[in-house]
Amino acid sequence: MPTSYLAKESDAVGRIDYTAEEDAVWADLVARQWPMVAAHAAAPYLKGLDLLDMPRTRVPQCPDLSESLRALTGWQVVPVPALISFGRFFRMLAERTFPAASFIRSRQDFDYIEEPDIFHEIFGHTPLLTDPCFANFSQAIGEAGLRAGKEDYAWLIRLYWFSIEFGLTIEGGVTKTLGSGLASSPSELLWAVSEGPELRPFDVIDILRTPYRIDIHQPVYFVIDRLDDLFAAAERDLLADVATARRLGLHAPKFPAKLESA
Description:
Elements: H1 20-40, H2 43-52, H3 62-72, E1 76-80, H4 86-94, E2 97-101, H5 118-125, H6 132-147, H7 153-165, E3 168-171, E4 174-177, H8 180-183, H9 186-192, E5 198-201, H10 204-208, E6 220-224, H11 227-233, H12 238-248
Helix pairs in contact: 4-6, 6-7
């Protein structure tokens, strides 16, 4: 996918010199999103947000977050360009290393950005990585990816997409957002908890067969009634699940085909 953003270069220890405007974008995103996640996000995410105590008025630095995560779950955060290959992504997860795109979105993309930026990576992803069960699940996805053939990558990643990125769960009979793509998107968070999208029960094979697009709000979300069901998926033979899903075939997409520009 083409991008209009340039990666920010880090120094020898992983720190990045963000501009005053970039820090201001971060501060404004946090100010807008914090009360929204407080109202709609699941408890594990909110607990992780509290544990990390990340700065609200400037872009956090990956080395600082890594210090906290290592003490909690043995993970670290490393700056990378905006988009990396599936192979590199799976390898980093397997090594308990989260790849964080180093740039931050512009004001033009404030409400919704197709590609991951540092706000999505840090505000969206790192809180769940403070939880040992979520941290182990992400590592398991990475380890499965290392064993997978390239032809299986797009199938396997759907389990990560519909859980860690865009998962929902139930707390006290109320639907709560779990995924990082929801925590970091002001517009999609509200869409996900509205009556607009289709909600389906968490099922690994069903998820693996469900296509998605990264450039729109999701028309379908999977609801994890019990988080233990998600964590148990890490113990499954995920490559056998992928083989089953491939044999059954993809579901018909719930979204229109993307029109390619000339």
